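hey so i finally got around to running both of the ones u sent me last week. sorry it took forever, my laptop kept dying halfway thru and i had to restart like 3 times lol. anyway pasting them below in the order u listed, first the sequence line then the structure token line for each. didnt double check formatting much so if smth looks off just lmk and ill redo it

first one:
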Amino acid sequence: MNTLKFIAKRLLLSIVILFFVALIVYTILRCLPTSYVESIAMQKSQQPNSKTFEEWMEQLNATYGMDKGIIPGFFRWVGNAVRGQFGDSWFYTRPVTEKFASTVWISFLMGAISMVFELLIAIPLGVIAARKQYSKTDYTISVIALAGISLPTFFCASLLKLLFSVRLGWFDLFGLVGGNYRELTPVGQFFDKAHHLVLPIMTLVIISVGSLMRYTRTNMLEVLNADYIRTARAKGLSEHKVIYRHAFRNTLIPLVTIVGGSLPGLFAGALITETLFSIPGIGYTSYNAMIAGDIPFSMFYLTFLAILTLLGNLIADVLYAVVDPRVRIS
């Protein structure tokens, strides 16, 4: 019952926070120097026998609802959003939700798979490095982690493409599908897309695994130096039980924060990686919309990420009680 009350209070607070976040985002988008309306008005005014730029601005502002102030415009957007009406994307000339749905799942798939590999690689190696502090194994893992943190995304992606695409010829340099994609069976199309996603996912794993590895090692060392760990060893418990039954459980608490906070990242897309490999994901799509001044699509995308951020924090708070019996929600 306490958990349900806690979740209800957090949800109500999240609604208030979301309202002000959406207001700030809408205000920033309206104040950006890049204006889709101005760009279209400039193009139309330069056509032969066309109206003036000012006349086109007046007409297009009325068409796109930009003739109202920021506050009236925002409340108009909120009223439509509550009814599930997010309008059409100005830049992509398609319904916002339709364009979002057609690109977000590619980015989600890449992010989810890379996060699973990141957890499977970083956490065990971080624990091993902490257990063997100042050994050759610890130094090797630390060097690998620092290399992953330091490598820029474009350099890592270019290195992978040079090795696996140019030298070995195992993968295509760009694109999500091959040239004969339409001729393949549904199963063949699935494996063709999976084949093209290998290098982008490898890039995401390499550039993100290092920080989590270092974080796990640092927290594990802090736990291993605690008094109760020394007591457990003094009682004669095996090292395996000390590490994985007592120490690792307490290391999970800060890791839950990271995992909960990574939820928005699954849907945010990877702009640089998607651009380098020509993957039509949500990161590259939203970037084009923002630089074009596409307010409907940008508002939906950024508000969606804000909702996921609030939801991720709530999930992390609830999971604290799961991984640590000392934490009680009241």
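and the second one:
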Amino acid sequence: MSDKEQIENIVQLYIDSMDESDPNKVKHAFHSNGKVVGYLHGDFMQMSTDDFADFVASQQPPPKEKGEDVVFEILACEVEGTTAFVKVRDTYLGITFLDTLSFIKEEGQWQIYTKLFNVESE
């Protein structure tokens, strides 16, 4: 499997984690030192991987069970050695985000290291 395919699988795992409110999938997709940063409802947000996993887990019932599946599109994916970035547009909890995900390959495994998000519409 190519690096790009592995990265796209991690993006799918990230989307599935939100769709299913599954904190374990968040922790598999994100590096343990990962960060999630952006503005939501005008407030600056900064979360660790654990904080984001807790936030995702708190969304009950999960979007998938409510028939509000997370919709997403990969807009760009570039791999440079052991780093990569992916731009993803997704709709989660009724909000459309543009996420810039940075990836690191550590011990042969790709993980999201940072998620910078921009709210496109609420």
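quick thing i noticed on the 2nd:
The first helix runs from residue 3 to 19.
anyway thats it, ttyl
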